[in-house]
């Protein structure tokens, strides 16, 4: 009878350990499911941002392809001359250094 009681106590202890491990694994499983949900939400946000960025890039590419080559849509600047050309055009005499 004593053997049976010891065996029963051992079985109850093992059962208690198994239940504790089961609860721990269930908690870990719940945490992992929450992590997966969070990652799926983050992934959806990133994909949405990626598509928005791709659309912006496509629109910019379309706009740039419609611009004429050479920047004709920009106002033309006056040609730049160097200082000597300016003085020659104004009929100024440049002093010549004498040695």
Please render the helix and strand layout as text.
Blueprint: H1 2-66, H2 83-89
What does this structure look like?
The chain is mostly helical and 99 residues long. It has a domain at 1-62. The protein has two helices and no strands. It has helices at 2-66, 83-89. The N and C termini lie far apart (132 Å).
Helix content bin: over 70%
Class based on secondary structure composition and strand pairing: mainly alpha
Q: Looking at the structure, what is the overall shape?
A: rod-shaped
Q: How can the largest sheet be summarized?
A: none
| Spans where pLDDT lies below 50 across 5 or more residues | none
Quaternary organisation of the protein chains: single chain
Head-to-tail CA distance between termini: 132 Å
- Rounded to the nearest angstrom, the radius of gyration is 42 Å
Order of helices and strands: HH
């Amino acid at each position: 009878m004593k053997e049976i009681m010891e065996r029963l106590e051992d079985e109850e202890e093992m059962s208690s350990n198994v239940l504790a491990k089961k609860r721990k694994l269930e908690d870990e499983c719940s945490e992992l499911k929450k992590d997966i949900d969070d990652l799926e939400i983050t992934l959806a946000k990133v994909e949405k941002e990626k598509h928005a960025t791709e659309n912006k890039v496509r629109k910019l590419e379309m706009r740039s392809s419609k611009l004429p080559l050479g920047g004709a849509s920009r106002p033309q600047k006056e040609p730049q001359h160097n200082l000597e050309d300016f003085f020659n055009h104004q009929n100024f005499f440049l002093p010549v250094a004498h040695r």
